[in-house]
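User: My collaborator and I are trying to settle a disagreement about how two of our proteins should look. Neither of us wants to argue from intuition anymore, so we agreed to look at predicted structures for both before our next call. Could you fold the first one, then the second, and keep them clearly separated?

Assistant: That sounds like a sensible way to settle it. I'll keep them separate. The first protein:
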Amino acid sequence: MAAKQTPPFLKPALEIGPIVVFFAAYLLVKDRTFVLGGKEYEGFILVTAGFIPLILASTVALWKLTGHLSPMQIVTAVLIVVFGGLSVWLNDERFFKMKPTLIYLLFGVTLGVGLLRGESWLRKVMEGVMPLQDAGWMILTRRVCAFFFALALLNEIIWRSFSTETWVYFKTFGLTAAIFIFFMTQGGLFKTYAVEDKAD
């Protein structure tokens, strides 16, 4: 399916919206316990249960509106369903907290395999957004690969060492801020290895 023209705000809204809803819902029910079918569930588990169909609806909407889903979006949706589902089914929040670790490890390993083959698989995903020279893509891919592994380690430290509430704040704001800051610090690389406009 060919890519479609959509309002510029729509894609980020569909990607970030479910996370914002998750965070707001968690704040509302974080201290409550619910009894369903004779079984007690913490608020975090119920919010996770609601997040699964929400992220699926958002992913389908993105596909319908843009005509395209990146591998990262597909894998993320699948892992949310699998590990979010395990958390709800087993009434164990640890599975959902592990999900970011696995996502970042998976993408880090994937980029690493590409690097071992002398290729930048990051380029296949982001070339339309950031046109760079070949050398620039290889440098950026190595940095992003290391960054993914660092995020995976950081998520493990946070969820294993701190409260659920701390992890939710970290997941909602900390990871987002870390990704933003990382790419902001790559400005020198983007400038050095930018592809020149050949029309000039």
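The second protein, kept apart from the first:
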Amino acid sequence: MARVREGLLGRAGEWLRDWSVLRQLHGEDANSTAAESAASRRLRPRLEEADTVGTSICPYCAVGCAQLVYAKGNDIIHIEGDPRSPINAGTLCPKGAATFSWLLNPNRLTTVKYRAPGADHWEDKPLDWAMERIAQLARRTRDETFVEKLPDGTVVNHTMAIAQLGGATLDNEENYLIKKLCSGGLGMTWIENQARI
């Protein structure tokens, strides 16, 4: 029993000697390593494990804050604001700071969901199937509703049955191409961007 007590007292003494508060109270400079302990010296930043650092843009709003994405192998291990960005200078709002957690959320949908007309359940479909279906429905709607001329003979070449809403983080060049496709190629008139809404 005495050995156990001595062992406990010895470990408690080591812990007290290593406790940064007591060292600072005994006069060690608080700006030195006095705030460190043996446990804190063993800690390593998780970003040290990253073997790749990529850049991204926060997907939430029209601000377009830059992000640094840290990965180890094929796994993302951290996302933070990019301090080189003139837009956000390394800061992120609460939504942007949560990018990592929603990206790896087990409830995040990662497959195309389709519910047939009149069905009471969703089905998983391949992405290629969904893209082809969207293209077919857009083309069919355009063809069925396309107006070449107004009754007075004015040439309009448009459809009023389809609209396009762009994402807030698209840049000017992407928006330009989308506008050319939607208005010039498909004849759409209702074209808007989330950044303005």
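Some points you might bring to the call about the second protein. The first strand starts at residue 52 and ends at 57. Strands lie at 52-57, 66-72, 75-81, 112-114, 123-125, 147-149, 155-166, 188-193.
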